[in-house]
Amino acid sequence: MDEEPQTLSSCFGDAEDKRGKVDSALDFGTATFQENVTAAITAYDQCLKIADQISLFSPNETLEDASSKNLPYFLLNFRRAELLQKSQQQDRKVLLRKAESGYGDFLKLLDQYDVLSRDDFRLLEQWREDPERFSTASTHDATQRRETKISRYKREKELKRKLEYLKQNPDALHNDEATLRQLYLLEIEFATHQTFQSLESIAQELQILKLAPPEQPSASTAQHGDGRQRSGDRSNGYSERLDPPISQLSASGNAGPILDRNGKPLRPFTILDNRQRLRDGVFRPDHNLPTMTIDEYLEEEKRRGGIIEGGGPQSGIRPEPNEDDMDKADEETMKARAWDEFKEDNPRGSGNTINRG
């Protein structure tokens, strides 16, 4: 029973040393860096396996029941998720999903031990409701979002300052359990702060990856495809040749030469003026030439009804009446008589019943 915690302690120390190599590295794109990341992830996986075997965390315990030496093990899932974000060994979406799951397990453990503050618990509920659109600040009110970002930055800066102050004298920490416990709790609080920022970053990156175009085929696949196209995929009759192959010409009866030795045509053919057509295309203008004159265009528009005639000064000139057209004269007389009767029945101002002068 006494060897299992020590085994976990040694495994955790080894994992922390490997994580230190990753954090101190300067070249993030090298193969050595990725090997160190993979080794650190494997070490933390082993730590999580041992912690699960010995039932290190119990749902019946609270934070006060947890000993100070076991508090660093609260960060196992957090450290592993951080390393997964730095890894490039697998598909990016798969790594982000694994990191998101690790952060979720870390927050679940803190919620189980009542470590989360009221604001952190509120953020946890928001993330559980909609992980894909999670944000630590409001996405609707720009002022509130700015204030939230500033307050979280100040809180992060304060936590860093406290951690640096407590780590200045490591020898004194081993002799003062209360200060050591305070240091571990500050590390957990700082990790919680970083977790919500990482979950927001993961949600944004996953949204970008959804909109990204599909990956291009590798060089070997592209070369193989080009060779297949050059040789012609004869299984389905596909070919990029513009002229039909000899087999099709033979099947249609157009095989063989066009002329015999004496110059006599053997089959019908068409003479194309390709040379003259190409010569004309070289010296032609680079814009489209008109196909009709302006008068022809206006006639076409008039035929289609696109030109409205009438209006202008000519529209005010009334034509001279035809004295011989008695029907037209009677129509005009009846129209004038009706207008006179209307004016007699409706004197000027009779409709003004409200604002009478």
In short:
With 357 residues, the chain is mainly α.
Structural class given helices, strands, pairing? mainly alpha
| Average pLDDT metric | 79
Q: Approximately how much helix is present in the residues? A: 55-70%
Treating each run of at least 4 consecutive H or I residues as one helix, how many helices? 13
Tally the beta strands: 0
Low-confidence runs: 1-5
Order of helices and strands: HHHHHHHHHHHHH
Task: Estimate the strand proportion.
Answer: under 5%
Distance between the termini: 112 Å
| Rg value | 44 Å
Sheet bearing the most strands, described? none
Structural features, described:
The chain is an all-alpha fold and 357 residues long. 60% of the residues lie in helices and 0% in strands. It has helices spanning 3-24, 31-53, 76-86, 92-112, 118-129, 142-166, 170-175, 177-211, 219-231, 246-251, 274-282, 294-304, 326-345. Helix 2 (31-53) packs antiparallel against helix 3 (76-86). The chain is elongated and about 130 Å long.
Q: Any descriptors?
A:
single chain, 357 residues, mainly alpha, 60% helix
